[in-house]
């Protein structure tokens, strides 16, 4: 039986995927904020505790890291007199952390886990179908996109009209981030599931999701998905030290095949974008990172915002106007260097610690499930999801502490999965 908190947190998830920033009336809060508040309310009215002694160290560690980053953000932004920025960022991170907590506490059975994963998959697939419609047909899918989000979507209309789909996200980059999170989970279920109808459904979903990723024209998302797919394929059979050379060969082979497919399919969809890497965006990425590091060395505790100037740009790039234009008019396009710029080396350390904690906990749970494919595909899919997302974020600004709310639903899902694996292992022992 589904509990009320999980229904509301799923509705909150769908609202963030389909109606980000949408308001029923101008004076009302956004729909996703209203649903989130109901989720918070119902988690207290209908507590969802599992029986038995269980200290959720995974959740505790995520909360400790997040609270530490909240304190750091407060100190950095107060010191740099950025109080307006501080209010927006703190509200976003506190809501994101709360979402992870509510998701982890709402999911208390394997059926709840599947229900939430299905909602995530269906939600992003529907958004992808809308995006494909935007590319192939235009209307009514572009108008649908305009009507279901915030007023800020108007600034991205030219990008959508040019063919870079947004689906039901605000624009192409957030959609690609969502796709990089969900595709590995779909691949894992496809590889581990033996039910024919489920395999057919997942195959159709995977095709739609990959086409949508290509139509966003976000190269890093596609590269992240290819890497995650290779990782999941390798983990379909257990990795062990005795066959390390064989496993490395298999992993490399899958990566090579993925690279060939990337080049072939990318050339078909948009050769200039996917394989030439001669546009301003691609050429300026390395100078962006060097500039960000130079900036951080001058400001090791962060500045809250990026006060970029020519003095931080490497001298070897100053003679190229295209590169200078790309560097000076943009952020660093890398969530790790963004954390370094905004919150210094401490902020970067906390971000890395967050990812290390998540992967470590998923690894520990994988050791417990062994041959239990019921949970194994979920844990491997979640690991692939984070690997894919990390690779994508190496070339874009989004991340757990930089405005990406959807990833916190996946973090909460990971905490819940590890919790259920723990109880499953206890039941087997008893």
Describe this structure in words.
With about 425 residues, the protein is an all-alpha fold. The protein has helices at about 5-20, 30-45, 55-80, 85-105, 110-135, 140-145, 155-160, 170-190, 195-215, 220-235, 245-275, 280-285, 285-300, 320-330, 335-370, 375-395, 405-430. Helix 4 (about 85-105) packs parallel to helix 17 and helix 5 (about 110-135) runs antiparallel to helix 17 (about 405-430). It is globular. The relative contact order is 0.13.
Entry summary:
Helices cover 73% and strands 0% of the residues.
Task: Give the SSE layout.
Blueprint (H helix, E strand, L loop, with lengths): L3 H15 L12 H15 L11 H23 L3 H24 L3 H27 L4 H7 L9 H5 L10 H21 L3 H21 L2 H17 L8 H33 L3 H4 L1 H14 L22 H8 L6 H35 L3 H21 L12 H24 L1
Helix pairs in contact: 1-2, 1-5, 2-4, 3-4, 3-15, 4-17, 5-6, 5-8, 5-9, 5-17, 8-9, 8-10, 8-16, 10-11, 10-16, 13-15, 15-16, 15-17, 16-17
Categorize the overall geometry: globular
Total helical elements: 17
Would you count the extended β strands for me? 0
Average of the residue pLDDT scores: 83
Radius of gyration: 22 Å
Task: Give the class from helix and strand content and strand pairing.
Answer: mainly alpha
Helix-strand string:
HHHHHHHHHHHHHHHHH
Query: Any low-confidence stretches, pLDDT <50, length ≥5?
Result: 50-54
Range of strand content: under 5%
Cα-to-Cα separation, first versus last residue: 25 Å
Biggest pleated-sheet summary: none
- Helix percent band: over 70%
